[in-house]
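thread: overnight batch results

M.L. [08:02]
morning all. the overnight job finished for the chain we discussed friday. pasting input first so we're all looking at the same thing
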Amino acid sequence: MTQQSGESPEEQPGLPPAPEAARKAFGDSFPTVERYAELLADAGVRRGLLGPREVPRLWERHLLNCVVLSEVVPEGVTVCDVGSGAGLPGIPLALVRPDLEITLLEPLLRRTTFLQEVVELLGLDHVTVLRGRAEEMLGTLAPVHVVTARAVAPLDRLAGWGVPLLRPYGEMVALKGDTAEDEVRTARDALHKLGVVETTVEHIGEELIDPPSTVVRARVGESPGGVRFAARRVKAEKAARANGRSARGGRRRR
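M.L. [08:03]
and the structure it wrote out:
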């Protein structure tokens, strides 16, 4: 990885001790999240998935900021973490919610390689790593109940990637910052066209972190993605079925 600001490895800040809030938030999974934090601070930095200056604030800014999503994700649902990067927020969520089936969706090979290594090292049997772009997943990834995302793109663009992956009446939960309200206003028309029927901005994790995390929750109706993506979904599903028939036919001929 290219060194930032001329820092040598010896000069890079180390991982601080976990705050008491982390022990409370992760509970029985605390030893596992400690291992994940060490991986992020070491291999994550060396491979360019995390800037070295982020290491001192890894617990508060990244791990705790993400794990509080557990407050708004229903029990026993399927989740797709779009643009998962180094596994944030998908892996912290997985550590405290073994009831969920989580897909970490990421287009870059070096990131999916890291994610797969982390999933195996931490024993996260309910997590799947998938390489690809969200817009390529229609007809490939089964529609999910919840899409999560964190600081991937402006809300209108993020919704264009994530909302079409939802099941009817599912929701996208996006971790955002101070601009969340402004982004919702700017994206309102785009969200409506994507089939979003309700959008709220909420603050979560108030008992654990200060300031609390800000999330945008975009709930869809019976047509996730709207008319445009409904047509694309049907086309993609037909292509997938045709490819399946072709593959089976090929095996019979051999």
